[in-house]
Amino acid sequence: MMKRKWILLAIVAALLVVGSVFCLNYYRRMAIGSFDDCVGAGFPASKTYPLQCEAYGKVFVKQGSDPVEVAVDNVVTNFGRVMQFVSTSAPKKIAAQAVADNYRDLISPSLLAAWMQNPAKAPGRQVSSPWPDHVVVTSVARVNTTTYTVAGDVIELTSDNVADGGMADEYTATATVAVEDGNWVITNWDSSRK
Question: Is the pTM of this model over 0.70?
Fold first, then answer.
């Protein structure tokens, strides 16, 4: 009889501990409702622009991010996502068509014409591996009301890196983003290996 009481007491104690941990985690999650709360709870802020913090599966963006700067950031981020589809070492006609198909909505008409004329000068996939996978924007700086300078790192992957979640290489890039015909587009792109 005494043994049953101890077992029952141990089960009740274990349930109280588990319930307390569950409640504590629940209240911690509920207390994080903003970027500042997330960082304050010890979760790391991203090194990208705009600043972000992820906690318990939710992503919090730093409030006060200028919507124009976010739009400018998006142009460069979207450009980074399609770079891998532009093979700059392909025959000129094929490479020029890839430039047109992938960059048309993201770059100025004059830059598009220049890169289609000389696709080897366009950013993109120079070899089969590694390839440019995406751009991590590190800063957005206003030049004037219609022009921004965006700096970032182009992240390259190989098939081995995709499997393990790592990167093969990275290099820096700077873009000038301006308004042309009512749209934010890249008007200049400069990149250099680290």
Answer: no
